Amino acid sequence: MTYDVAAVRAQVPALAAGIAHFDGPGGTQTPLAVIEAIADALARPLSNRGSAVAGERNADEIVVESRRAVADLLGADTSGIVFGRSATQLAYDFARTLAKTWRSGDEVVVTRLDHDSNIRPWVQAAEQVGAVVRWADFDPETGELTPDDVRAVLSERTRLVAVTAASNLIGTRPAIAEISAAAHEAGALCYVDGVHHAAHTAVDVEALGADFFACSPYKFLGPHHGVVAGRPEVLADLRPDKLLPSTNAIPERFEFGTLPYELLAGTRAAVDFLAGLGQAAGSRRDRLVSAFAAIEEHEDGLRTRIEKGLADLPGVTIHSRAAERTPTLLLTFADRSTTDAYHYLAERGVHAPSGSFYALEASRRLGLGDTGGLRIGLTPYNDEDDVERLLVALTDFLR
């Protein structure tokens, strides 16, 4: 499959600064089409949603079209697309709302593999109502979190399973469809953190069986805000705290205050940009599936090149080992600090940050404490030159 990375790079203005970016898991650089969409939304009349004047109509069109774009991206129902400030904020919002349905002695399952934004909101909500938190562990040697690991902590009292679709620390991609099915068999809902997952592969929320699927557009070339794709029939049964005059319609009942219209316009543009990276014709959804197949092939090829280069370097441990994973590598060094490596690379125009990246439980389970490691994350705009610069800089650092 042909993938023109040079053409992609030419449309990302920030790359002109000459930095080799391996910080995609923390947020991607922005294509010109997204920047222009945000500017255009702000340059035209813009008001609260309505139909009487141009500003109202523009706002309404942005929201409607952005929901359609995200629904196409995720294979989800448009009426279940909820926008918020961030995936973390949305997790807290839904945790508070779902906790209203829990009773003392009910159980909530979280995993050691997850980002803290898909752990702490559930733990804190459970504590407030007297629910029990049960932890699904992963194997630190393989990086794998299996459906059996989750089944081991399910019971007839389980009300929610919160699980990542891809670890932002080591890239592990659990078998979400099987985990969701196990949660449903136990009578529980499944809340999936897809923030890292949605940046690297075509998502099909229906096939995954997720009741809620969270993602963040700034991880896939868009602006900074959060999204949850919820099952409309599940959302219909939930009653969030909200202002009295605000609508009770779905999905708007879960969106508090005025939406960031300009950012939603940017998100629609990001989805359209991604759809243009494939070779398929047809619907936007078809083009997105084709595009992500090309992106995956491109990113996995670069990841393999990095892994081969790292194998020749002394004292390097790669903690990303799962069979199914995103192009994300976490490294530590036998006798060198990963923070020192981060700064050394940065001085040479290579951005690969060091830390635990809010995946504290996973970092601790790997024996890395709160320090974590050096994370190398690939994006659609990385190329062979980036990889070569990374490997040369790491070689020089370790020498």
How does the SSE layout of this entry go?
Blueprint: H1 5-10, E1 20-21, H2 32-43, H3 54-74, E2 81-84, H4 87-99, E3 107-111, H5 120-129, E4 132-136, H6 147-151, E5 158-164, H7 176-185, E6 189-193, H8 205-208, E7 212-215, E8 226-230, H9 232-235, H10 261-275, H11 284-311, E9 316-318, E10 328-333, H12 338-347, E11 350-351, E12 354-355, H13 360-365, E13 373-377, H14 384-398
Helix pairs in contact: 2-10, 3-10, 4-5, 10-11, 11-14
What does this 3D model show about the protein?
By secondary structure, the protein is of the alpha/beta class. It has 14 helices and 13 strands. Strands 2-8-7-6-5-3-4 form a seven-stranded mixed beta sheet, with helices on both faces.
The assigned structural class equals alpha/beta
The global form is: globular
Number of helices: 14
Name the beta content range: 5-15%
Poorly predicted runs? none
User: Average pLDDT value?
Assistant: 97
Tell me the series of helices and strands, N- to C-terminal.
Answer: HEHHEHEHEHEHEHEEHHHEEHEEHEH
- Strand adjacency order, main sheet: 2-8-7-6-5-3-4
Number of strands: 13
Radius of gyration: 21 Å
Helical amount: 25-40%
> Sheet bearing the most strands, described?
7 strands, mixed
> In angstroms, what separates the terminal alpha carbons?
38 Å
Organism: Saccharopolyspora thermophila
Domain Aminotransferase class V: 22-390
InterPro entries: Aminotrans_V_dom, Cys_dSase-rel, PyrdxlP-dep_Trfase, PyrdxlP-dep_Trfase_major, PyrdxlP-dep_Trfase_small
Pfam families: Aminotran_5
